From TrEMBL:
GO biological process terms held by the UniProt record: cytoplasmic translation
Residues in Large ribosomal subunit protein eL24-related N-terminal domain copies: 1-62
The encoding gene: RL24
GO function term, MF aspect, one: structural constituent of ribosome
Region (Disordered): 98-119
Gene3D superfamilies: 6.10.250.1270, Ribosomal protein L24e
Entry protein name: RL24, ribosomal protein 24 60S large ribosomal subunit
Keywords: Ribonucleoprotein, Ribosomal protein
UniProt source species: Thalassiosira pseudonana (Marine diatom)
Family statement drawn from the similarity comment of this UniProt entry: Belongs to the eukaryotic ribosomal protein eL24 family.
Amino acid sequence: ELCAMSEYRIWPGTGKLFIRRDGKPIFLGSSKAQSLTLQRKKPAKLVWTQAWRRLHKKGLSETNLKKRRTRTNKVQRAVVGLSLEDIKKKASQKAEFRSAQRDAALKEVKDRKKANKAK
């Protein structure tokens, strides 16, 4: 038999049979289980019972298989100032070409500042 409170096995010659008012027989394995049953404690709220362990997923590590996770995919999106094609074009350009472009832009800005100072 199984104890109604703890769900542990009750070996022959041990435990008590308690008959509830509604006539339902309840097997209790220990005086602790009997005391808690008479106090109307819920087995799910007592940490040492099997009901609590089942609720809180304890002791299932060997039966559970590894959970599969979905891999995240990297997606490129268009930004406010640039379309997706422009971003891809920039990414495919060589580093030297882009650094040359940057230098040219800097030179242009400097020239503009010089022209403004001369005026």
